[in-house]
Structures
1.
Amino acid sequence: MKHWWKFLAVALLLTASIAGLRVPLAPDLVHVSPDRIAPGEVTVTVTGYNTDFTAGERVFLENDSQRVCATSVRVIDGTHLTASFNVPAGMRKNLTDVVVSGLRYDGALFTEALGEGIASGNCVEGHLANSGFVFPNRPILYESIRNLHFHVPMWFAMITLMAISVVFSIMTLATNSLRYDGSAVNAVYVGLVFCSLGLITGALWARATWGAFWTNDVKLNGAAVTALIYLAYLVLRGSVPDAHKRARLAAIYNIFAFVLLVLFLFVVPRLNAVDSLHPGNGGNSPFSDLDLDKRLRMVFYPAVLGWILLGVWMFNLRDRAARLAEQLDR
Amino acid sequence: MRTLLLLSLLIMSSAAHAQGAAPGWLENTLYGSGKLNAVLIVVGVIICGIGLWMWRMDRRLKRMEDRMKK
């Protein structure tokens, strides 16, 4: 069974893709209407996402740790409820949170008639029913957090292929054999396929979250420069007619290119001197901070391994085809 | 391969222009269903990209088969 890793690749991609698309987001509150309250009788409508509101939800307002309990709660359906409050005058902060059974909407209500504070109500906290295996639900990202399992593995696959290429380049220099040189360039070709997919999927995700296809983010520019460095590798190879000279020159360039890849994708974006929109870069918190129970990782790691194996498989096919073509040429 | 790179360069170059205007249809598509459509488009791009690679591999093998027949 020497093909076991190909089956593993398919199995990992299948499970990671299904889980990546099917696991629901954690319930959260997405809308509160109206958006301001004044002292007196107030009824607010709360809209949830992936919530399953049932009779008996506990709703209260919270302003600077002082609470106003709901006088009545009416559940309309699983994602909508209305709650009535008897709002007193004299709350301290001008933004009031709405809390429904443990879910909080920060600063939902602009508050009028501020003062020195109110008598805090003794409201019951309440908890939503356990929602099982869920991904974090974050503002701005929402469902697009699933792209973590599709966009990021592209880069892992690319880096693995470029690393394979560098190993072949070192072997070229060590043995002076053209055979390894061919494998090095084939790995770069497949690596650039994943690089292109990473750039395009990244641009689309950026449009959906950051608002533009391309920003001057340090990691984006690093990735673009890396792509250009490897394109220059192909141009360099094409410009040297002598096969042995080309192999040695390309191998040395490739080693430098890989060092630059590591610098541009891992070292420079993590310097605190630069700003980055990417999680985990430029002083940003990584996704692992939002995902305390590691549920994203349980899907992310299989996805990364699956895409790396698929990339190696693609390299394997291309390399074997190139070998055959060489034999035909003779 | 070349097509993919061209496409990605095209996106990079058009980004500067895209920043100012906010086309409504794009927002409606990408932001739909709690931004789930952004995920579906990304998955679609990846499948199409791998498919394109398979197509080129197919052509490469076909050329070799033709040469072997000669």
Note: Chain A has a mean pLDDT of 90.
2.
Amino acid sequence: MTDAEVLERANAALAKEFELEGDRMRPEADLREDLDLDSLDTVDMVVVLEQEFGIKIGKDPAIASIRTLGDIHIYLLQKKQEIEKNAG
Amino acid sequence: MHVRRVVITGMGAVSPYGKGVGLLFSLLRRGKSGISRVNAPEGLTVPRIAGVVPDVGAESIPRKIRRSMSPLSVYAYLAGCEALEQAAVPPGVVSGDRFGIALGSTLGSPESLESFFRQYIASASMEQIKSMLFFRIMSHSAAANLAQALGVSGRVVSPSAACASGCQAIGLGYEAVAFGRQDYMLCGGTDEFHPLVQGTFDLLTAASSGYNDMPESAPRPFDANRDGVVCSEGAGLLLLESLDSAHARGAPVLAEVLGFSSLSDSGSIAEPSSASLAACMRLALKDAGVQPREIAYINAHATATELGDIAESRAIAGLFGTEVPVSSLKGHIGHTMAASGSLETIASVKMLGEGIIIPTKNLESPDERCAGIRLPRIPVDLPGRIIVKNSFALGGINCSLVLGGPQ
């Protein structure tokens, strides 16, 4: 899976879960201010991403510092790198 | 003690017919059935018919309000909004601490409960459970969701008394307003269809299964050929306030809640006794300060079970004699469970307003053991302005309301 595909799938999964129009899924979008997501949505965001990518996020402390959609992208790409590194 | 007269100034319904009190009453009057064939799990339950709510546009509810709602909360919210719109309460009232809610369901969402245990048992883990699932499962899910959605800050109570929940909620709302604890109470019951409930009636040999190929012919309250309950879903909500409040703000009064009773029949958890049903109606009349001869109509609980129909008929005959007209609306829309008491109260209020009695649908040959009461087979004029509404539940929880038509 390419990095672009990761971001595309993440955006699609989150847009579906939280009923967000595609044009709002910009990297700079603030989860709370721009996408109107709250702490309960963050809990579900983790579940959605785990299911979408078959990864384990759980209560990863890194999630607490995520503010924007771009932060999610960075987190997922780091996760991808870790998985690829461990596999290699 | 501060006792005030309590009136109904708004009503909202979601029924197997769809959304709205107008639709409910017009199709009841036309004798239309709300029962259809459903895809019950093969082999799990014998009944194959139910009164399910058609698409009511749940997606129109904003996501943040809807995300913690199962269908039973969606129905309650839509019905609640309709009741508030009709009552046209002044701005700020709903969010003030003098506005409360009494809303019950048989269970929290059984569909969500099933979803939880499917995931939990399969994975032996909570990790894939989403945050909103519990808010749909909790017993007061509908009441809590409605309060959150409307911004209510007064008292919120959630009576769960199975098929008597809606009637009991109206009674609790009536008492809250009568005693000055709240100025407004949005009251009623709601439920969503699930095989758990239908299957339970089936294993109790109380569910209809002989009309699977003729859904509109069941249920058949009071009929010799009845074969049990047809499970349905929906919500009915009524706005109660004091008569003085309604007069002060010029709100049209739809009906008055004159009396209420709720008694337990501890003789059996599933078999009603005539004596306990009669005691419940008698207490409601006493609360209302009226005599049996003043009652113009009884909207029966009558679900089309042999035990229930006969016990209720005998209780009515013993207390009111043979001349008071009696009908059950479950022949039209089935048994909407926790919603039945409030949906049928709404229809009864409409009957009071229009001066007409809707007869029992599918009643063709009255069971002679129910024949000691007057069971109209065609619409008849309502011969007065005070009526009784009964709701009797599994668990032995019985409730009766006495309602008066607008002056």
Note: Chain A is about 55% helix and 0% strand.
